Amino acid sequence: MPNKVLVVDDEPDVLTLTKLILEGAGISVITASNGKEALQKAEDEKPNLILLDVVMPGKSGFEVCKILKSQPQTRSIPVIIFTVLNRDVDRTLSVEAGADDFLPKPLEPEDLLLLVKKVKAHLEKSSYSQPPEQLDQTSR
Amino acid sequence: MYYENPSLRRSGEERLIAWHNTLLRNPDGKITGILSFGTDITERKQMEHELMRDFGRLEGMVAERTKQLSESEEKLTSILESSPDAIVVIAPDGKINECNHATLVLLKVPTKEELIGKSFLDFVTQKDHKLALEGMAALQTQGYAKDIDFTILSKNGREVPVSMSASYLQAKSGKLGDIVAIVKDMTQHKAEEAELKKAMKLKEQFISHITHELRTPLVSIAGYLDYIMADNMGPVPESIKGGLAVARRNTERLVQLTNDLLDVRRIEAGKIQLVPELLDLREILDQCIKEITPFFYKKKQILKLKIQERPLRVQGDRIRLNQIVMNLLSNASKFTPEEGQITIQAEEDADTITVQVSDTGIGIRKEDLKRVFKPFAAISKPSYDKGTGLGLSVTKGLVEAHGGKIWAESPGEGKGATFIFILPKKVRGGEKEERGGERGEGDR
Questions:
Q1: Among residues B101, B119, B120, which one has the least CA distance to residue B111?
Q2: Closest Cβ opposite residue B442 in set A11, A24, A91
Q3: What is the DSSP string of B372-394?
Q4: Helix H or strand E segment including B98
Q5: Do B222 and A107 touch (CB under 8 A)?
Q6: Whose CA is closest to A111, among A137, A75, A86?
Q7: d(CA B263, CA A109)
Q8: Identical fold at B83-185 and B276-438?
Q9: Domains of chain B: which residue ranges?
Q10: How do the residues of chain A divide into helix, strand and coil, expressed in percent and rounded to 5?
Q11: pLDDT tens per residue, chain B (444 residues)?
Q12: Number of folded domains in chain A?
């Protein structure tokens, strides 16, 4: 199973926590702390999934998502918007930005399990397909 | 020859006699005598006198009435003239027939003469002609038009936002089809409205921002605590777990506060979006009871259930209904002393479901029964401590979003309280579709 996840967050503590949780579940994690770095790593490292924070200095998560989904080389990487606000409007904006899913940051004990479960489910899905470049015809 | 003179009757009564005398002559012209006719005109004269008197009185009355009329006209005129809103009488052909002083001020025209006979539409900005004409069409169909908003172009070239109400002139003598329009200058109002909108938006942004800023560190605190307590960083001794649990519980209170803050903002902005589904409310009650039992257990409180056996079918948002019941139950536990009793009752009738949560706690004073649902009600009353101050106001907003009603009853302080909410079994049709559709691909 391809299991490289790019986690993007400007809060180092949240980044470390997310890395800990996912690595504990056997998932390999690379990190980025702003939109620019995220776009760079998405292209260079070809992760199988991107977990994307919304509120960051510079480009917001929604903006980064739109760019990822507009570039042929990154379009097929699934993106999960990872947010602390969990508002209806954020869900709507996520859909508009082309995100594949939406996930609250862990504030409740069950959020930890949900995080692992969702990330695994998305990785599982992408494991059935070809390399990212040809993915877009089959998975969407 | 004619004359009148009084004569006395034998009875002593005085009568007025009119005499017509004619000289009698023989063919030679010599006077031979006088022919005298006497007519008693006493009554006639009396009547004449009375008539004269009445006539005088009538003249007086007419003068008085004329004075009154002119006073009343003056009064009406002064009412019209002192109105701060422009009042304009418009003929069916759109020409101005009459107007008051405020009209001159609004249109920046020095005299009424300059306005009378002009087309009213000439003073409406070109872009709003359609709006003004639509208002007039509404006037024709329903007999009146209210709050038609458009922009006036005053003579000095300034555009003034106005709101107009119009109806047909009701005077009996008035010409048929004359329209009386009241035109209100909305400049100040619009400015205040814009100011208020800006303030509301700022408040919304502030709450969103502060919620985000509060929750970000909470993710690290709550997340790490949960991660550590699940022995992910090595086994944690029980002695330490107890302390961590306290930290976790208090973190949860902060998380709850930020949740409530978000909900209050949503409710205030009318942005609560329900995801209604057909469900059995007993399932939600069961789940809530399961969640709340540890709290009851800790305070040795007794829970009594009076829930009907048959399913309580209702259309509602599962998560929000859970939140409503949990809020009421945790409130009941919070405000009831140890070993107190809490009762949940749930039943249905044809169209509604009623849930009651009663406790034997500190009760609510009569004057506070409504106030407890206001945001931060607890803050001004130290005895109702330990809450975010938002729970009941959020609960009320959520019940109302379901088309329901909630209220509190209490016999008084120290005598317990009952919170009752009623839900319609069906969320109103149109709203459901609209709300369900708005959320896009919800995945709650």
A1: B101
A2: A91
A3: GGSTTGGGG-TTS-SS-S-HHHH
A4: strand B96-99
A5: yes
A6: A86
A7: 21
A8: no
A9: 2-77, 83-185, 192-268, 276-438
A10: 50, 15, 30
A11: 788 888 888 888 888 888 888 888 888 888 888 888 888 888 888 899 999 999 989 999 999 999 999 998 888 888 889 999 999 999 888 899 889 999 999 999 999 888 899 998 889 998 998 888 888 888 888 888 888 899 999 888 889 999 999 988 876 655 567 889 999 999 999 999 999 989 888 887 888 888 888 999 999 999 999 999 999 889 999 989 999 999 998 898 888 888 888 888 778 777 777 888 899 999 999 999 998 898 899 899 999 999 988 999 999 998 899 999 999 998 899 889 999 999 999 999 989 999 999 999 988 888 888 888 887 765 455 455 556 678 898 999 999 999 999 999 999 888 999 999 999 988 654 343 333 333 333 333
A12: 1
CATH architecture label of B276-438? 2-Layer Sandwich (3.30)
Which tokens in the block code for residue B401?
Answer: 């979003």
**Residue B435: both structure tokens together:** 């709300």
H or E element in which residue B179 lies: strand B179-185
Domain of A26? 4-139
Q: Does domain B83-185 have CATH number 3.30.450.20?
A: yes
Element (H, E) at B253: helix B238-268
Q: Report which of B200, B212, B211 is spatially closest to residue B260, judged by C-alpha positions.
A: B211
C-alpha–C-alpha distance, residues B320 and A46, integer Å = 40
- Cβ-defined contact of B219 to A92 (cutoff 8 Å): no
> Closest Cα to residue B390, out of B309, B297, B323, B313?
B323
**The domain spanning residue A49 has which CATH number?**
3.40.50.2300
Q: How far is A106 from chain B (nearest CA, A)?
A: 5
ipTM above 0.85, yes or no: no
CA A39 to CA A60: how far, in whole Å?
A: 12
Query: Alpha-carbon torsion B315, B318, B319, B321, what sign?
Result: positive
Amino acid at A86: N
**To 5 degrees, how large is the angle CA A66–CA A128–CA A45?**
50
List chain B residues with CB under 8 Å of A86: 262
**DSSP run (H or E) holding A45:** helix A35-45
For B280, list phi and psi in degrees, rounded to 5.
Answer: -100, 115
B228 class by beta-carbon count within 10 Å (0-12 exposed, 13-18 middle, 19+ buried): middle
Q: How far apart are CA B274 and CA B263, in angstroms?
A: 12
CA distance B400 to B133: 40
Say if A25 is an interface residue toward chain B (CB within 8 Å): no
Tell which phi-psi region holds residue B209, choosing left (phi > 0), alpha (psi between -120 and 50) or beta: alpha
B270 close to A (CB below 8 A): no
CB contact under 8 A, A20 and B208: no
Which residues of chain A have a CB within 8 Å of the CB of B438?
88, 92
Has this prediction a pTM greater than 0.80? no
d(CA A19, CA B151): 60
The residues, any chain, with a CB within 8 Å of residue B216's CB and separated by 6 or more, are A11, A14, A84
Q: Which of B206, B220, B273 to mutate to probe the A interface, most A CBs <10 Å? A: B220
